[in-house]
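Researcher: Go.
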Amino acid sequence: MATTGSELRLRRLQSEAYLNLSRIHRELERKVADLLVESGLQDVTPAQLGVLIHLFQERAPLTARQLASLMGLSEVTVGRFVRALEGVGWVERTSDPADSRAILVRPTRRAYAALPKLLEVSNALLDRAFAGFSPQEIEAIARTTEMVRDNLDSQE
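Model: Structure:
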């Protein structure tokens, strides 16, 4: 069966969207890294920052399995992030009183003290990324990217 011009155009648009999302992700990671260094927070990487953000958002200690699920990463990867963060004093691990086999991860006092700087980094990046967009356009982007993520998650 031959591909029509409109089908080919749609496929190109899909490819362009995918490539743009990939480029955006890489650029965001690079800019976050720069902002972290500028803020004196160079001992946390952008990927490790995701662990801290989830811990702060959940307002409760989490297991590596829970963090991995929230972040869409493997437990092994999240475990590496947690060990690195623990090594420089950003998180601590403790036994779960409800399940002696589980280890809970929580931010340290150092992490809570740095939270205002972390928020400044996040806000500066978001302000730059979404400059010129209306609230309605940002809502549309959020809905659209969530749909793409949900489509990919549902195929696992």
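Model: The longest strand covers residues 99-107.
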